[in-house]
Structure formats: structure tokens, C-alpha cells
Amino acid sequence: MKLPQIFRLRKLLFKDVENQVDLSVVCFMALDNGMTGVFEAAMDRTQIDSYEVIGAKGSIRVSKAFIPQMY
User: Fold this and answer.
1) How far apart are CA 43 and CA 50, in angstroms?
2) Residue 32 gets which letter from DSSP?
3) How many CA atoms lie within 13 A of 54 on its CB side?
């Protein structure tokens, strides 16, 4: 089975101007099989420890998907 390939990609990066560090990213993808996807990651927003995959026949939500680092 051949995996779909990304043929169009657009990224939006948001920087901390003072420290020149990327704080968040939003990525929009278009695949060669006609499907689209959005990926978002951020360090400057409310903490969310889950992710969700949404498809034509339903969705999957994974709670507590990431273990935060302890400091």
C-alpha cells in the first residue's frame, strides 16, 4: 500500500520576538489523494494533553496522550 504524499504545505510560525524562539505552529497539508490535514502545536496556549483524528467515517480522540515533563 502506497502512503499518500504531501503535495502542498503551508506553515504559520509565531515567534517570541525578544528571544527569537518559535512558540507555536499551524500547518495546513493537502495530500495527493485529495485529503487535507491540519496540525497545530504551541507552547504559549492552554495545555492540552490530547489529540483528535477526524475522518469521513468518524473520529478518534486520545485523552492524556502526552506525559508532561516534570521540572
Assistant:
1) 14
2) T
3) 4
- Write down the pLDDT at residue 23: 82
Amino acid identity for residue 53 in this structure: V
Q: Which residues pair with 9 in a beta bridge?
A: 29
DSSP secondary structure, 4-27, as one string: P-EEEEEEEEEEETTTTEEEEEEE
Cα–Cα distance between 37 and 20 in angstroms, integer? 27
pLDDT in tens, 13-64: 788 878 888 888 888 888 888 888 888 888 887 777 788 888 889 999 988 7
Residue-level pLDDT at 66? 73
Q: CA angle, corner 71, sides to 13 and 41, nearest 5?
A: 20
For residue 12, give the C-alpha cell: 504559520
